[in-house]
Specification:
This protein is α/β, with parallel strands linked by helices and about 350 residues long. The chain is about 40% helix and about 20% strand.
Length: about 350
């Protein structure tokens, strides 16, 4: 059975998404026909993961480009421009979102009429989705080349099919390897506070029949001291020119622990997650999310109701802790080729 997912796609005039807030217990798909509903879905993580929100954003441009009754070409251009800006700003850290929205709208807006622009937007969004599936396949090939068989790996946050159009980045390496018959044992960091690891990696690994264990984020360093790991594999939301890498909060702690135990720490990410316009991680905008994500889980309070909270959704791992950046081009290191 293919384990590739259909995380985001265009279906009969709508963006179809698997609702990741409902996993692992319910597999529900949302058909979204309105840009503001899509922005909300991105913001509340119904679709999440850097490449997946890029693909969703590209389809969002198609929704925005739908001509309105009585709208002439100039009014259409101005309105879609402003909806594209709102889409690109739905989440600030993953550069893929703004990249995919800009790419789709830049291609579409050269169409002379609103109808033509919508057709062109759909063409480009479909291309971005297809390319994303192909990039996952290539990253997996390069990722497998640095791992032994069997391999024990640790991972943080969800970077499988759910975080992309369907293939995956870091977890995609494991899933593709398993399809080829390679053996893995995966330590899944639960990934507080929203449990992308515990909820989503477990779901994906179970479907694929790959053995795994879920551990609290705080157990990772101890596990690294007790078990013979071959690698730590994580994804990325934005990679600066010097290699500093933003990824889900907790990635930096895992990288420090991996370094302390001599375990190679790899970032697996497509080139669309690189932002070579910024010199270092200091310039990466870090999303801070609402306090209630930390104060409570699924409606049950875990702190006093007004406890002050610090809730950065991402951190930045300094380049010197990273062994290599596995992209569709191979295993890269800074200075990165353009
Ligand atoms: O807040 P999320 O769930 O969108 O964060 C996702 C991550 O941090 C992933 O590790 C990253 O986007 C790489 S996904 C292939």
């Amino acid at each position: 059975m293919s384990t590739e997912l259909r995380t985001v796609e265009w279906n009969d005039g709508a963006v179809r998404l698997i609702d990741q807030t409902r996993l692992p217990h319910e597999e529900i798909y949302l058909d979204i026909r309105d840009t503001s509903v899509l922005i909300d879905a991105i913001a509340r993580l119904a679709v999440r993961g850097a490449p997946a929100i890029g693909v969703a954003g590209a389809y969002g441009v198609v929704l925005a480009a739908e001509p309105r009754p009585g709208e002439d070409a100039a009014a259409h251009l101005a309105r879609v421009d402003s909806e594209c800006r709102a889409l690109a700003d739905a989440r600030p850290t993953a550069v893929n979102l703004a990249w995919a929205v800009d790419r789709t709208w830049s291609f579409a807006k050269s169409g002379g009429s609103p109808e033509e622009r919508k057709v062109r937007a759909l063409e480009e969004a479909e291309r971005i989705r297809e390319e994303d599936l192909e990039l996952s396949r290539r990253m997996a090939e390069h990722g497998l080349s640095v791992l032994p068989d069997p391999a024990r790996v640790v991972t943080h946050c969800n970077t499988g099919g759910l975080a992309t159009a369907g293939g995956g980045t870091a977890l995609g390496v494991v899933l593709a390897g398993a399809r080829l018959g390679r053996k893995f044992y995966v330590h899944v960091d639960e990934t507080r506070p929203l449990l992308q690891g515990a909820r989503l990696n477990s779901w994906e690994l179970q479907r694929a029949g790959v053995p795994y264990v879920v551990q609290c984020d705080g157990a990772a360093a101890f596990a690294l001291s007790r078990f013979p790991f071959d690698a730590a594999l994580v994804g990325a939301d934005r990679i600066a020119a010097n290699g500093d890498t933003a990824n889900k909060i907790g990635t930096y702690a895992l990288a420090l622990a991996a370094k302390a135990h001599g375990v190679p720490f790899y970032v697996v990410a497509p080139r669309s997650s690189f932002d070579l316009s910024i010199g270092s991680g200091e310039e990466i905008p870090i999303e801070e999310r609402i306090a209630d994500e930390v104060r409570m889980f699924r409606g049950a309070a875990s702190t006093p109701t007004d406890a002050p909270v610090y809730n950065p959704a991402f951190d930045v791992t300094p380049a010197h802790l990273i062994e290599g950046w596995i992209t569709e081009r191979g295993v890269e290191r800074p200075p990165f080729a353009p």
